[in-house]
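Blackboard transcription, Thursday session:
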Amino acid sequence: MNQVGSVGLIASLAFAAYALVAGAVGGKLRSPRITRSAERAALGFFLMITLAVVALEYMILTNDFHNAYVAEHSNRDLFTFYKVAALWAGQEGSLLFWTWLLSIYSALVVWQNRRKNRQLMPYVVSVLMGTGTFFSLLVFFVANPFQELSLVSSTGSQAFSAPDGNGLNPLLQYHSMVIHPPMLYLGYVGMVVPFAFCMAALITKQLGDNWIRITRRWTMVPWMLLGCGILLGGNWAYAVLGWGGYWGWDPVENASILPWLSGTAFLHSVMIQEKRGMLKVWNVSLVILTFFLSIFGTFLTRSGIVSSVHAFAQSNIGPFFAVFLAIILFFSVTLLFLRLDHLKSENKLDSMVSRESGFLFNNWILLALVFAVFWGTLFPVISKAVQNTTVTVGAPFFNKVAIPMGLLLLLLTGAGPLLAWRKTSFQSLKGNFTLPLIVALVVGAVLFVEGVRDFYAWMTFFLSVFVLVCILGEFWKGARTRMRTAKENFAQAIYNLTMRNTRRYGGYIVHIGIVLLFIGFAGQAFKTDAKGLMQEGDLLRVRNYMLRCDGLTTGDTPNYEYTRALITVTKNGEAFTSMHPEKRFYKASQQPTSYVAIHPTLSEDVYVVLAGLDPDTGKAIIQVFINPLVMWVWIGGVVVLLGTLLALVPSRVEREMAEMRQAQELAVQAGDAY
Amino acid sequence: MRTSKLLKKCCGALRKGGALAPPPSAPFPLPPPLSLRERGDREAVGEGFTAGLKPRPSGVLIRIFNAPFKLGTALLLGTLLAASVARGDTPGKPSVDSIGNQVMCVCGGCVAPLNQCPMLECAEKAEMRAFIKKEIADGKDETAILQDISIRYGVQALTAPPAKGFNLAVWILPGVGLLAGLGMVVVIVRRWRRKPAIVPVPSSASLDPKVLTAVEEEMKATRLG
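(Written on the board underneath:)
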């Protein structure tokens, strides 16, 4: 199967390189035939990379330890579920997986645009396949997953099959880790599509509404998937790493949030261009930046230039990525400068108090946050280069910088959508913001009296209430109008209102999800923990919870051995739950890991870790965290996902608009004929 | 369909007022299609189609409101930033765990803060925790303990570098970036406000009141149907 995989790789490289050139030539010569040929080559690229992926997965699932990658990242007793995930557990496999996802996106774009956007498509294919060529080169020449395991002796090296593999990294043997990397990669890779359309629009000078409409949708999908991937990663860190948190500002975590933030900025600023014909240069810049940061994220994860707890796969591929990033930047920025004349703003700003200025402020904060996180993440590398001293830039720095900016963004989440385009009157502001402000002040006062004194937490709750009342007020006002004029009941009114403008109300739901996320984040200010050595009958108190150890058991599975603590929890003296944290020792990799026991509720999680056994007393080292409001982080994530999906559904208004556009085009054509 | 007829009438009225030039190739007047936002905004807040065509409110109110708006924004921003700085200046009573969140485990295997090192029997973790315990027992405050840790284990043992020397740059530049961004926003806004619009906005004075009323009624009748 190694040969099959290698054939797939070399063929995919040939297809990608051909499509890159043919696309550019087809576009330049305006030749539909060459363009079709490039598109077919892109489909061939997809088929050949799929062949390579199938070959590697087959070897993993059939325990073919002739293959060095399989021997390194799988073992016989690994659950099938996790064997599938071994594809992206190592450097070579994950780069192959990246390339495969790119080929899927490329095939989808080619199929979706087989009859439309024909002038853009040659260059779109060219850019997609340019990226494909780079990754194919990398996978084939630098990080090839189809290397045979060989035994080196004095007489030379010979093929060798290991009796068993080293197994999957134990930290990766968790259910959300099976879907977290694919989601994250789908997000990263997907950003290539808006970039390709943007470049094609710049090359062909077709910088009207069309490319921006296509790009917005193609940004929303990877943006959503990237967000899901980030949250699943947080869920994994929370459940596996055993330190009671879900976000540690690790460089790899930062790398994933950067394109998400710049993508968020684009999804907002694009509305100014659609609505007012403004911010054209800015939007192109954001598309370029988002793609650049996506590749940068992959580079940071895979190159090992910064130390990270997530650095599961590192090698010496950094320089290749650095060159590719430089090419992207040079090519796209040059093109942008050459097309500045075609990107002039069509309108002027009527007022500082308007939706446009709200979006500008939103973009300002988001980009400042991108810069701060980027700078903090890279500072250790810069420090090493400048002062030859390695420094660590971790959570204290990022919290200090990011929390105030996050709160400003939270404020804009509620205030922005209520500002009118062009100009917002004083009456309108008063009407829209008085009730939310009063409710937020009342809730803020109650929270203060109840003892919420942490400034950031208090501010988060205050702003969250303000934003929620603002957004729910929008739903209420719209529904009330429909109930009055269309004689609908409340549920019908909400449904019809939402479906009539899915983009707008989907956006509001996303904002509600963001508020819930912030509420979850604020809970961290009230985190409590306790630690103790426990044996049967020992008690450990934390806040109003009492933990009793009912003993320790040990067990053995084909994959790992475990020690399990049996903990009974009472709350305010009443029976609450039983929890069974484990310490596992994986046989193949000879590595320990924790299996945290979590009892989640809407108000707080009880989080129990068996950190190990005390070497002197033999007692279990139990650490317990009471983590308030964590559940709201996951709920908020789901709400963001649902809101984005809703915003992707074409609304009745959009369909009507499309019909109107079509009618207008027909009329103009008729006029021309006349 | 009725809506589009009325819109065409409306557009014709605008043209009579000289606000829009007729498209050269169209045999009959056509309205520019409404964007999603234009329709959606007006729909949800219960405003009629004519909301955008009504005479603009006096600029006096906006001018009066602008000052508190800017002041309020500046105050909120200032409060958030001041609070951020203030929090950093008031360390609480140190504990092994509070310090453990601010220093890295130096074992080299976990790449994690001391409190998050997942290694079962990490000698460095035990040694560092013992050192912190001793420092607390000696009555040292958080700043002094962190300073001692940076001397003993190197500055990379801190989860954030001290704000001095070249390391000051890591703390200052995000603020500089924020202010530079604000400067850019101000410049863009000023340019935009000076720039004449390519497409002149029609004045509501040029609209025929009869058409206006008809459009309003039509929208009321159809927009939520």
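Lecturer's comment: Residues 1-151+158-168 of chain A form one domain.
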